[in-house]
Amino acid sequence: MEKISVIIDGKTVEAVKDQCVLDVARDNGIYIPSLCYNTEVKSSGGACRVCLVEAHQGGKMRLVTSCNYPVRKGLEIKTDTPFVHKIRKGVLELLLSRVPDSDVIRDMAAREGLTETRFRKDEGERNRYKCISCALCTNVCAEVVGVSAISMEDRGADKKPATPYHKPSDVCIGCGACVYACPTGAITMKEKDGVRRIWGKDFKMIKCSVCSTPYIPEAQVDWIVKTTGKDQGFFDKCPDHR
Ligand code: SF4
Ligand code: FES
Predict the structure, then answer these.
(1) What's the number of domains the chain is made of?
(2) Which residues line ligand 1 (CB under 6 A)?
(3) Which amino acids bring their CB within 6 angstroms of ligand 2?
(4) Which of 6, 33, 125, 215 is the most buried (most CB within 10 A)?
(5) Dist CA 203 CA 195 (whole Å)
(6) The domain containing residue 160 runs over which residues?
(7) How far is the centre of ligand 2, averaged over its atoms, from the C-alpha of 25 (Å)?
(8) 68 and 88 belong to one structural domain
């Protein structure tokens, strides 16, 4: 790992060569908004564009998405210029007009002084699905969980995750990783009487032998046992009582 120095907002900071600008900024307590990037998911990032910053190198300036722009020697990043805020505001205004009910986007937009949008839709449109088509959910499912139960369908603004033919997936294990990864809370997962419902399929939950709380789907345990060889008995107790 080659260590280098870069400048972010006038401050010289240490980074690992090729680390993305967003991670370096986060490590140094510098705020850059982000939605579609997750450090655990290699294929994430580059979709929402809220993380745009100025990259200065060799006398040239480029506007780059910080979540997939690698740091190199001599790079200077500016996250807080009038130009960055103008572009960021425009991106957030568009996202807000698309999914006005997402709290996370509203909070980011408010931070840029944006509370109303020129693109506001009528009441019916406003309560629609919160998806911003970032594909983080499908990437987590394929890359981290390793089951590929969902994929992106349709194009443009209508692009969204779905199970094949909109039928309950044969391979979904009900783990909810897509729900936890989604930046806008667009995926619904419900639990009642020891049964989890997600993507139109019901999953029986295993109860902790100590506190009786249903905490993990049987199908997820079967998958972990099959793919890692972990002992089934390990899952008798929830993480709090192991
Ligand atoms: S459901 Fe969430 S994670 Fe999946 S594409 Fe839409 S916004 Fe991204
Ligand atoms: S967080 Fe960088 S493009 Fe979405």
Answers:
(1) 3
(2) 131-137, 161, 181-184, 186-187
(3) 34-37, 45-51, 65, 67
(4) 6
(5) 5
(6) 136-241
(7) 14
(8) no
